[in-house]
# Entry
Amino acid sequence: MGRLHLGTIFGTTITLDFSFLLLIAFFVFLNVQGSGIQNALLWAPVLLISILFHELGHATMIGMLGFGSSAIVLEGMGGSTYNERRARPWQDLLISGAGPASSFLLAWLTGLIIANVAYVSHDRFLVALLPMLAYWNWLWGIFNLLPIGPLDGNGILRNFFRLFLRERLAFVISIWISMLVGLAVFIYCLVARQIFIAILVAFYVRSSWMQWELFRSQNRTDD
# Structure
């Protein structure tokens, strides 16, 4: 699939991979029957704004720590922020934490706009969009704090362990926590009939297991 360059913010490039459009189409299709086509289409700006703001949180922290500009790619099941850096554990911890923090910030700012900007209550589009944007960013921030790789919560956990443990041991502990917590969340979602989240978490657990197998075969992990 191709990619579309959306622009640059303070040196950080933003690119949209066309696989991201499949994510939007999936969410629209998933909600069109229950909420109607107009409300379902709101997932397009919600996903675009939320994931971009989240990745800009990572990129902003990277820049504040002196590692220069980054490259943001909106793709697949979300987004990624790329930056060539040799950061210390506490710096990587802050970079990981900046993503969920930005989601909470966006939810809070959206709530302020809803409460204090009178024009919002007279615009049908904003009346529908902004509460949805605030609600899902609160949930997305909480979900992203789960210690399941590749969610930011696992990055926070691993980098916390790196503060006082060797790299290999920090990886082993964090990857096993990722798999065990992921399995527990997967079972809970199946019982609660949250099938999409269950499938997503199952994919994350599989990814963690593959990382563990690679670590075992090479007896090392990338820094």
In short: Helices lie at 19-35, 37-40, 43-64, 89-116, 124-144, 152-162, 167-191, 195-218.
